[in-house]
Write a structure and sequence with these properties.
Layout (H helix, E strand, L loop, with lengths): L1 E4 L2 E9 L3 E2 L28 E2 L6 E10 L11 E10 L3 E2 L20 E2 L22 E2 L14 E2 L3 E15 L2 E10 L42 E9 L1
Antiparallel strand pairs: 1-2, 2-5, 3-4, 5-6, 6-11, 7-10, 8-9, 11-12, 12-13
Length: about 240
């Protein structure tokens, strides 16, 4: 952290975290979009041991503010610019097979495929929104069988954004001030992609008959909005 010097102040923080569990939610419903509603095998919960649904390995945040050194009249004075930048690694998710491919009579504990021995889940041409992971690294385990793919062995896209603000503070009377704010969120209009849909209501690798789904591994949505700007007026007293 840099203390304010000549109107300039900055701060940087970094967090390394790692969390493992065999279930991140509570109750019958999943709490995280990348999670699963029920245990993979109710009689062997250790098969679900893996990265927590909320496991974000790296997270860095930096902010800076600068009081512009303009003087002379009430219009020139009281201006400040600031920015906040965030960088974070992606959340984990599991390759799944919806339906009842393991034939246990339940469709709310989705199955997982088998992993091809020695195969890499990273596409040969690199990860893109059209092919975030190599679907050829997984095969259908067969009807009535549960696959050997672990929980949350894949990782979604990272996150990066910068928010910017320009603020003008004007004293009215005594302790009463008016603040004019111009703010821009996601300043550089970066597309922060969501994870590929792998839940039973969206996209998966195979259907419960073992047929490979052609859109598997594709990302269809972003996790954040496009650039947005707003103007606000605040009265402080």
């Amino acid at each position: 952290m840099k203390r304010q010097t000549h109107g300039l102040q900055a701060q940087v923080s970094y967090t390394y975290g790692h969390s493992m569990d065999n279930r991140s939610g509570t109750g019958a419903r999943q709490e995280y979009k990348n999670g699963q509603g029920r245990t993979f095998d109710p009689f062997n919960p250790d098969l679900d041991w893996g990265r927590s649904d909320f496991d974000v390995r790296h997270n860095a945040v930096a902010n800076v503010s600068y009081a512009l050194p303009f003087t002379g009249n009430s219009f020139k004075e009281g201006w400040e610019v600031s920015a906040v930048g965030t960088l974070a690694s992606g959340v984990p998710f599991s390759p799944v097979i919806p339906g009842d491919s393991d034939r246990d009579g339940s469709t709310d504990n989705v199955n997982r495929p088998d992993v091809v021995a020695g195969a890499s889940t990273k596409p040969s041409g690199g990860r893109t929104p059209d092919q975030w992971f190599d679907t050829a690294a997984f095969v259908y385990p067969g009807a009535g069988f549960r696959g050997n793919a672990g929980r949350n062995i894949l990782e979604g896209p990272g996150f990066a954004t910068v928010d910017f603000s320009l603020v003008k503070m004007t004293r009215l009377t005594g302790r009463t001030n008016v603040q004019l704010r111009f703010e821009v969120f996601n300043l550089f209009n970066r597309a922060n992609f969501d994870i590929p849909f792998n839940d039973p209501d969206g996209e998966a690798l195979f259907n419960d008959q073992g047929e490979r789904i052609p859109t598997a591994g594709r990302i269809f949505e972003t996790a954040t909005d496009a650039r947005e700007a707003q103007v606000a007026i605040r009265f402080l007293f």
